[in-house]
Design brief:
- The protein is an alpha/beta fold and 249 residues long.
- It contains six helices and twelve strands.
- The longest helix has 16 residues.
């Protein structure tokens, strides 16, 4: 895994992170994370001092109702939004201390994000959608990137559709493309925000089984969902309500 450090002359450099054997648990740690939104009606605390840690190789479930703070928590973990106060650490890297450019580089190489609404670019083929993260981070040569994108689409069962645009495949297939895209740079962490919320039960089960297979391969997956029926299938379960989180496992 890669981290980012600034040299004495201010030049940003990509540095290897600590070896897993020497990294204290947990791998992913949020410490007193607070997020307050300023609205016309006043301050609204979406997250209220959340402290939680995830271990390497876990399939973590975060369950809560709409408005509980789930999506805000995802935005904090992935660096999409800024926390108001607190700290977020991943393998010794202080995410809360990174600037926008550093965070974008770190996120592209270390976290794959999967959304409920897929977020695929409709003007691009499935293959090109999966290629995008690799083009951004530059971890692979062009020929290697193309081969890897094809392999990932094959892994999720879409090798016959790779040249189609997203509009010509089903919702379940689009979510599979989103998973392939999230895996493009081989990140150790996958964060999924309601990834089965728009899918029928059969397709949702297939996606969940795909996640379980990725965990078996060593990925750490944090899945946010409103579906409490999935509780028994997670390695570890947390429940969030009114911006606060509790450990239920």
């Amino acid at each position: 895994m890669l981290g980012i450090q600034n040299s004495e002359d201010g030049v940003m450099a990509v540095m290897p992170m600590q070896d897993a054997a020497h990294t204290p648990e947990p791998m992913f740690r949020l410490q007193d994370v607070t997020k307050v939104y300023e609205t016309a009606a006043g301050s609204f605390p979406a997250l209220k001092g959340i402290t939680v840690g995830f271990k390497r190789g876990e399939f973590v479930g975060i369950v809560g109702k709409s408005g509980a703070g789930k999506s805000t928590l995802v935005n904090m973990m992935t660096g999409v939004d800024h926390l108001t106060s607190g700290e977020i650490w991943v393998d010794g890297m202080a995410l809360h201390a990174l600037d926008e450019n550093q965070m974008a580089l770190w996120r592209g190489r270390n976290i794959g994000v999967i959304y409920q609404t897929f977020e695929l670019l409709p003007q691009l083929s499935l293959l090109d959608n999966v290629l995008l993260p690799m083009d951004f981070c530059g971890l692979y040569k062009p020929r290697e990137s193309a081969a890897r994108a094809q392999q990932l689409l094959t892994q999720v069962g879409l090798e016959e559709h790779m040249n189609k645009p997203p509009t010509r495949i089903s919702g379940g297939q689009q979510q599979r493309v989103a998973i392939a895209r999230a895996l493009a740079n081989d990140p150790p962490i996958i964060v999924a925000d309601e990834p089965t919320g728009n899918l029928d039960s059969v397709t949702a089960e297939a996606i969940f089984e795909l996640f379980e297979g990725l965990v078996a391969q060593g990925k750490t997956i944090v899945m946010v969902t409103h579906d409490a029926s999935l509780a028994q299938r997670f390695t570890h379960l947390y429940r969030i309500a009114d911006g606060e989180i509790m450990d239920e496992a």
